[in-house]
Design brief:
Layout (H helix, E strand, L loop, with lengths): L3 E7 L17 E5 L14 E3 L4 H4 L11 E2 L17 E2 L4 E2 L6 H16 L4 E6 L8 E3 H4 L8 H26 L8 E4 L26 H4 L3 E4 L19 H8 L16 H4 L10 E6 L2 E6 L2 E5 L8 E4 L15 H16 L12 E5 L2 E6 L2
Parallel strand pairs: 1-2, 1-7, 3-4
Antiparallel strand pairs: 2-5, 3-8, 5-6, 9-10, 11-12, 12-13, 13-14, 15-16
């Protein structure tokens, strides 16, 4: 469709060359391929961190970055900027030992991309890794929250504030370029609260959190801005998915997916303009093998093992905390939702890399769940 394409931030979609961003449709890339990397390096000035690794502990006395404040020990140890956690740029995979706070950098790279491509159509994917661990922030943002006594939470708040400012700079760049009205912006989180870090965050009034399919794990902020097409303050009550972003963007660009490519998501514009009340058949399926969950309307079934019968059944219209298991009372509903899962499995690819051994999660408002695979 003639769009310039840029991706800045966390890739997390494979390390092989054929999976590299510039080999997957992006003209520009600056970021890391792994699920996490350090927000700072040894030269970052004015940083506050919950922990340090051996590279930091062994820095020589003459190292100019002497003002790192360590507030505790964070499990697990923070990732290094080595191997898959390196910061790299472009198709040449040039390694950048970035000294600036990485959230600021991803924001600045995004703003620069907008300024360079404001005169023609572009697609920008800014995948901030904040506020993912390791918990590290500049003193500027740490000092914004002097009344927060919990050290980990204070750093976390600072990381979110830095993210908020970076997103603000991106929106400002669109305004300054005079293209905000005709630009579709989507902002969302990839999962709920990481409750396995004690005191970090809360999923109230819901249960679950990251790594679970309870509402605290899958119901996240999802914001869209397109002034020329969507009225400010519009709210969609129907469930939607990140899978809907691609078909919505294609429709906004006046194009469509190739005829031989069947997309899982749906164009959200009928919901946004009020001409529809739901997308597709209204069913949603999640899987992190062997766990699988399905939602149809207000009913949701969570199966700790997709290959075992039964599971936990909840009515979200009356039980958003998912505290009352209705599986024993409504076996027909369980059977219908299990059939929906099997229908979904019949048209999707089974995971080639499956999880083995015992798995246990300690999550908000739910007793620890464990199962053997």
């Amino acid at each position: 469709a003639g769009y310039a394409t840029g991706m800045f931030g966390k890739w997390h979609l494979g390390f092989k060359d054929e999976h590299y961003p510039t080999n997957r449709g992006f003209d520009e890339f600056y970021g890391h391929l792994s699920g996490a990397t350090r927000f700072i390096n040894r030269r970052t000035q004015g940083a506050v961190s919950m922990s340090v690794d051996e590279e930091f502990r062994s820095r020589p006395p003459e190292d100019p970055r002497t003002d790192l404040v360590v507030r505790g020990t964070e499990p697990p140890a923070p990732p290094t900027r080595r191997a898959g956690n390196l910061i790299v740029r472009g198709p040449e995979k040039t390694v950048i030992d970035e000294p600036a706070y990485i959230t600021d950098v991803f924001g600045d790279e995004s703003v620069d991309f907008i300024r360079r491509h404001a005169e023609a159509p572009f697609f920008l994917y800014s995948a901030f890794n904040a506020p993912h661990s390791p918990f590290q922030v500049t003193k500027e943002y740490y000092d914004r929250f002097p009344d927060v006594e919990h050290e980990l939470r204070r750093i976390y708040f600072g990381m979110i504030a830095a993210l908020d400012d970076a997103v603000g700079r991106i929106l400002d760049a669109l305004d300054e370029a005079g293209i905000a009205d005709n630009t579709l912006v989507v902002f969302l989180s990839d999962n709920g609260c990481a409750g396995y870090f004690p005191g970090l965050c809360s999923c109230e009034p819901r249960s679950g959190g990251k790594l679970t399919y309870y509402e605290g794990g899958v119901r996240v902020p999802y914001l869209l801005r397109w002034p020329a097409a969507v009225a400010a303050g519009t709210k969609i009550d129907a469930p939607v998915s990140t899978l809907d972003i691609l078909p919505t963007a294609l429709a906004a660009a006046g194009t469509a997916a190739p005829a031989d490519l069947e997309l899982d998501g749906h164009d959200l514009m009928p919901l946004l303009d009020g001409s529809a009340e739901a997308t597709g058949d209204g069913r949603f399926v999640w899987r992190n093998y062997p766990t699988v969950a399905v939602r149809s309307g207000d009913m949701k079934l969570i199966k700790p093992n997709q290959d075992a019968p039964g599971g936990f059944l909840y009515d979200l219209s009356t039980d958003v905390r998912e505290q009352t298991d209705l599986a024993g009372e409504r076996p027909e509903e369980v059977a219908n939702l299990e059939a929906a899962i099997e229908d979904w499995r019949s048209i999707t690819v089974e995971p080639a890399w499956t999880r083995r051994g015992p798995v246990a999660y300690s999550i908000c408002n739910i007793e620890p769940i464990g199962f053997e695979n």
